[in-house]
Design a protein that fits this description.
About 65% of the residues lie in helices and about 0% in strands. The protein is mostly helical and about 190 residues long.
Length: about 190
């Protein structure tokens, strides 16, 4: 049975690069054409909806009537915008609720980000038990206390001339004495 060989690409790297650059150029052309189409559609829509104003040669009462008409149109458009915005907000809330229901049905809950809260043991018991909590829980009281006097009795402190001590401990023999002194209390 022959060994499986690495499958070689039928297209060379330079050909791949050429095709990629051609695809990008075509995509760029289509994108630019789409932008032009959107702009022309916007202009066409606005030309249909908005008629040019002819205010020259109008009397004061005609101008006031024109302003009233424009104001009514603005109110209508504003009402439509408000209604659409309310529908959009309602739909957004409904989508959010449905997403939560889907998560509940799946059994996977999105966990909220937790933050660290420093609470004493007393405050924790008060929160859990409410007003029933009377006992103060002092965790430090249960710790074993070590008296300073006991530790001082165990180690006798020698007070002497420090110069003699430095001279005795200097050099290699001093280090050997320190090493032997450190060994002897544990060996006994």
């Amino acid at each position: 049975m022959p060994e499986p060989r690495e499958r070689k690409s039928k297209i060379t790297a330079s050909r791949k690069l050429l095709l990629k650059s051609l695809m990008l150029a075509k995509a760029k052309e289509e994108w630019e054409q789409e932008i032009v189409d959107k702009q022309s559609e916007k202009e066409r829509y606005l030309s249909e909806r908005i008629t040019p104003l002819h205010t020259s040669g109008l009397s004061l009462s005609q101008l006031q009537d024109l302003c009233r008409e424009l104001h009514e149109k603005v109110e209508i458009v504003d009402e439509e915008r408000y209604d659409i915005e309310a529908k959009c907000n309602h739909n957004t809330r409904e989508i959010k609720d449905l997403k939560l229901k889907v998560l509940d049905l799946r059994g996977k809950f999105k966990r909220p980000p937790l933050r660290r809260v420093r609470v004493s043991a007393d405050a924790m018991l008060r929160a859990l038990l409410g007003s029933k909590h009377k006992v103060s829980m002092d965790l430090r009281a249960n710790l074993k206390s070590v008296k300073k006097e006991d530790t001082e009795k165990e180690r006798p402190v020698e007070v002497g001339d420090w110069r003699k001590n430095v001279e005795a401990m200097s050099g290699m023999e001093g280090r050997k004495k320190m090493f032997d002194a450190a060994k002897s209390p544990t060996g006994q």
